[in-house]
Specification:
This protein has 187 residues and is mainly α. Helix content is 78%, strand content 0%.
Length: 187
């Protein structure tokens, strides 16, 4: 396994998760904005690691494996924090949909890879838009406070529902791609 800056950025994204959790639970007025900042920083590394890997032609199988794992860990971790904080079905339901989709698509990709069809469920543009929408929504929900008179938390709730719709849309697209002319599984 060859280490390079893009891989280290992905590992940094994973390492930031416990820091975000600790900061989230601190009893200070600045804790939620700081956890939001750290989450945004982690989100930036998501974009930067892929960009640099392609630019420098250092893409690796390990990086291709680790990047979506880091994304899923990041989103699931923050969803759980926010659901635990809010105790609202209006947050719980989208969280279940988003986490359920991530598990389903991960399993689908593994199954398709076993059949030599991994390319049929490669990340597409809608998956990238979905991830951006999730990071945006979760950043707003983490921030919690109003900003310049804008109700950031309420905007984050709306953005979370947009992200949930994109989540379902991308899942349907991956399922269609996987099961259109899917090879028969050998018993």
């Amino acid at each position: 396994m060859r280490q390079n800056l893009p891989t280290w950025l992905t590992l940094l994204r994973i390492a930031l998760l416990p820091v975000i959790v600790v900061v989230f639970y601190l009893d200070a007025h600045w804790a939620r904005p700081l956890s939001c900042f750290l989450f945004i920083l982690a989100g930036i590394t998501d974009w930067l690691d892929g960009y640099l890997a392609r630019l420098w032609k250092v893409e690796s199988r390990f990086g291709a494996f680790l990047d979506p794992v880091a994304d899923k860990l990041m989103v699931a971790c923050v969803l759980i924090l926010i659901v635990e904080f809010d105790h609202s079905p209006w947050l719980t339901i989208p969280a279940i949909v988003i986490i359920g989709r991530e598990i389903t698509i991960s399993a689908l990709r593994e199954w398709m890879a076993e059949m030599g069809q991994r390319g049929k469920v490669a990340v597409g543009w809608i998956g990238k838009v979905k991830t951006t929408a999730q990071i945006t929504a979760l950043s707003m929900l983490l921030y919690l406070h109003d900003l310049f008179g804008l109700p950031i938390y309420k905007m984050g709730m709306f953005a979370l529902y947009v992200a949930t719709v994109l989540t379902i849309w991308s899942m349907v697209g991956y399922m269609k791609a996987a099961f259109t002319d899917a090879p028969e599984e050998k018993s």
